[in-house]
Amino acid sequence: MRDMDPRTPCLIGTAQRTVREQPGPEPLDLWEHVAREAAREARLPVGRIDSIQLVYTDSWQYDSPVGRLADRLGAAPRHRAYSRVSGTAPQLLIGEAAGRIAAGELDSALVAGAEALATRRAYRQAGEHVPWSHPADPKPPYGWDRPPHPAELAHELFLPVHTYAIMETARRASLGMSINEEMVDRARMMAPMTEVAAANPHAWRRTARTPEELVTGHRFIGWPYTRDTVAVGEVDQAAAVILVSTGLADRLGVPDDQRVYLRGWAYGEDTWEVAARPALGASRAIARTAEAAFARAGLGLEDIHALDLYSCFAIALRQACDAIKLDPLDRRGLTVTGGLPYAGGPSSDYVLHSTATMAGLLRAQQGHGLVTGVGMHLTKHTYAIWSTDPGGALGDATPVFTADPVEIVALYDGPATVAGYTVAHGRDGVAEKGILVVDLPGGGRAHAHVLEEKLLADAMSRELVGRRVRLVSDGKVNVARW
What is the tens place of the pLDDT at every residue in 422-478? Predict the structure, then answer.
């Protein structure tokens, strides 16, 4: 065994499960399954788990999520945690577990997540109620850190498929790309991800697609995004990881080459409101977060053997590539799972899947891997460096960067300039309304709707970013015309 501090945390057990038969099991069943599988791989009796940490599940609100799982496992953990909603939640839990192990507070920790949204949909389509156990009564409030800005709510700008699309159009315009060039470029970037998913037995969508198929594929949902290039959320998937101290790994007899170490990680934040972002199409927070993670790991991007960049929408990939100076067509690829649009995007859980997959790859090949997470509307960022070689400095959840917001003006009458936009589409594929973020002459930003059919068609046929428009407020929302 390596000569190191016996409190050094290492990842020694992983599990993933994808259920395609409908209706499938409830989240509690999935938690139990992956917890037992991960513990079995780690050679750790479930009753010896010191900490159980669960990622928030959108599928069902339990009265005591961690308590119910502990009862199922016959465990009595000294530490328990249930996260809030965020794609960064798995890394925050993993980071906390690693920190507590390194401090000698814990010897072992389970971090697990599960969603059964495909099963919920199956019950809904059958006109039946979900027959799951231990419902919370009363139902707790939704688990986000903070609700949308009142101006966002008034303009119905709270769905990620719209907020991310607005940032996408801003980046497209800043680079001088045409509408078609952006779509083709996106398809070229994402087609290799479908090939990775096709080879991943845990992936939800396992069909390789060509760039041409992605360009001409499904209907628009939040223009310019099509259904087959965004995260697929209605999935039944679960994942778990087991972290232990090196001393416990020694006692369990885990071979050195089956241990994966968190060399360093970091957390950073952009503004909470998209309209408040200093630059809609770029992120200083990503660059600073990545820089801190690499510094703590004592490694650079050139040292990384495999990557998994959070891929809920193309702009998340593109801003990450821009920030860390990575070619989107890098030979190492952007994902080890296939990404959220193809492997599956189980609400806040995805980073558990990417971490588990990365751990398996590193065990097989040895080396270093990068796993990133994104929360809310490209607001929160985690960068984690995993390695089969111990070293580095862990880091913690203290933000290494927090962006300064641009002022948001709720209601406004007068001229403005489009900074970013999207056109919301219904399930029938018909354009319903445009949603703009605009720069105001005196500084600050505002939101606006576009309601006229001819203007919606114009917005999708030529670049609207940079165009002068006029906003008229009805006392509740702003409406744009040109």
Answer: 999 998 889 999 999 999 998 999 999 999 999 999 999 999 999 999 999 999 999
Sheet architecture: strand order including 306-308 = 306-308, 368-375, 380-387, 261-269, 399-402
Residues 341 and 228 sit within 8 Å (Cβ to Cβ): yes
d(CA 400, CA 316): 19
Residue type present at position 170: A
Kindly give the pairing relationship between strand 261-269 and strand 399-402.
Answer: parallel
The kind and range of the H/E element at 248 are: helix 246-252
Phi, psi torsion values for 424, nearest 5 degrees: -75, 135
Quick: pLDDT tens for 141-151: 888 888 889 99
Strand-pairing partners, residue 469, are: 416
Q: In whole angstroms, what is the distance from residue 193 CA to residue 243 CA? A: 28
The span from the CA of 39 to the CA of 33, in Å, is: 10
Helical H runs in 13-88?
A: 27-42, 65-73
Stated pTM of the model: 0.97
**Rounded to whole angstroms, how far apart are CA atoms 421 and 265?**
33
Do 334 and 193 touch, CB atoms closer than 8 A?
Answer: yes
Q: Is 199 helix (H, G, I), strand (E, B) or coil?
A: coil
Residue in this structure with the two tokens 């700008």, named with its chain if needed: 157
- The mean pLDDT of the chain is 96
CA separation for the pair 200, 360 (Å, rounded): 12
| CB atoms closer than 10 angstroms to residue 468 | 11
Distance, CA of 12 to CA of 456 (rounded, Å): 53
| Block residue for tokens 């071979």 | 255
DSSP 381-410: EEEEEEESS--S----SSEEEEPPPPPB-S
